[in-house]
Amino acid sequence: MTTPTTAAGIGALTLRPVDPLKDAVLLHSWVTHPKSAFWMMQDAKLVDVERAYMEIAADEHHHAYVGLHDGVPAFLMEKYDPAHRELVGLYEPEPGDVGMHFLVAPTDRPLHGFTRAVITAVMTELFADPATARVVVEPDVDNKAVHALNAAVGFVPAREIQKPEKKALLSFCTREQFQKAVSA
């Protein structure tokens, strides 16, 4: 993150780029965990995760970051250009659209409010770029928990779309919607 985000009672949240080789074991443990079913990598082998994040690292339209909680890896964030990745042909992108995915690392010791702090920090980071006008997400229609989190930071569902791997709920959040949601 350009500036660490500090959430009351949570601590400091920062981002650093994923290093596909050094982070593969960590990311593999996260994305294959049963609590990460909606990430759709349950059966991935370590080499699959390494390869997937090497492809992202080489892609000018897709970027991955490890999120740190007080300096310790705790979440994953991806941002992408929906005019070139993920949503090509599924909606009409507008200038300033940025796609986003996030995953909070599975834990046996959840911290109350942590996931909401993470999505708020991720959105703050995305909107720190003045070129970002709107964030676009496409979670699985059955992922009710993430729909509630998305609504809490200002996302408005547009419609269901059929992606090759899932039926998704296309949702958008403008800078103004985000600011209104987090200041309420």
Kindly report the name of the CATH homologous superfamily.
Gcn5-related N-acetyltransferase (GNAT)
Spatial ordering of strands, largest sheet: 1-2-3-4-5-6-8-7
What's the CATH architecture name?
3-Layer(aba) Sandwich
Instruction: Report the total helices.
Output: 5
One letter per element, helices H and strands E, the order comes to: EEHHEEEHEHEEH
Low-pLDDT sequence parts: none
Give helix % range.
25-40%
Structure description:
This protein has 184 residues and is an alpha+beta fold. The protein has a single domain (5-183), classed as 3-Layer(aba) Sandwich (Aminopeptidase), CATH 3.40.630. The protein is built from 5 helices and 8 strands. The chain has helices spanning 20-31, 46-57, 114-128, 144-152, 175-183, and strands at residues 5-7, 11-17, 62-69, 72-80, 97-104, 134-137, 156-162, 167-174. An 8-stranded mixed β-sheet has the order 1-2-3-4-5-6-8-7, sandwiched between helices. Helix 1 (20-31) crosses helix 2 (46-57). The longest helix is centred in the middle third of the chain and has 15 residues, at 114-128. The chain is globular, with a radius of gyration of 16 Å. The two termini are 24 Å apart. The model has no long low-confidence stretch (mean pLDDT 90). Pathway: Siderophore biosynthesis; mycobactin biosynthesis. Acyltransferase required for the direct transfer of medium- to long-chain fatty acyl moieties from a carrier protein (MbtL) on to the epsilon-amino group of lysine residue in the mycobactin core. This is Lysine N-acyltransferase MbtK. GO terms for molecular function: N-acyltransferase activity.
